[in-house]
Amino acid sequence: MFDNYIANSDFVAAELYESVREADNPGRSKWFFDKCRKVLNAATTPFEDRVAVCPRGVDTEFFTPNRRSAEPERRSALL
């Protein structure tokens, strides 16, 4: 697997959690993670603690035309 992961949405993070949840994958997850820990010296930190959600996109409330400054337009007019 991986040591840490940045998901671009809660949906993607939920899919990752589901893919490794032992209840959804009886036997496979335990066997796979045990092998990874032994052979690859993989992280032993709980999987949920190694996934961060960082949504992509722009904050449209902060970056709005209403907040535009006239300064950049003034500078470009001088060029």
Outline:
The chain is mainly α and 79 residues long.
Care to describe what's here?
By secondary structure, the protein is mainly α. It has one domain (5-78). It is 39% helix and 8% strand. It has three helices and two strands, in the order βααβα. The protein has helices spanning 10-20, 28-39, 71-78; strands at 5-7, 51-53. A two-stranded parallel sheet has the order 1-2. It is elongated.
Distance between the termini: 52 Å
**Number of helical segments with 4 or more residues:** 3
**Mean of pLDDT:** 80
What is the H-and-E element order? EHHEH
Class from secondary-structure proportions: mainly alpha
**Low-pLDDT ranges:** none
Strands side by side in the biggest sheet: 1-2
> What is the percentage of strand-forming residues?
5-15%
Rg measurement, Å? 22 Å
Molecular shape: elongated
* Domain module tally: 1
Give the helices and strands, then pairings.
Elements: E1 5-7, H1 10-20, H2 28-39, E2 51-53, H3 71-78
Parallel strand pairs: 1-2
Keywords:
3 helices; 79 residues; mainly alpha
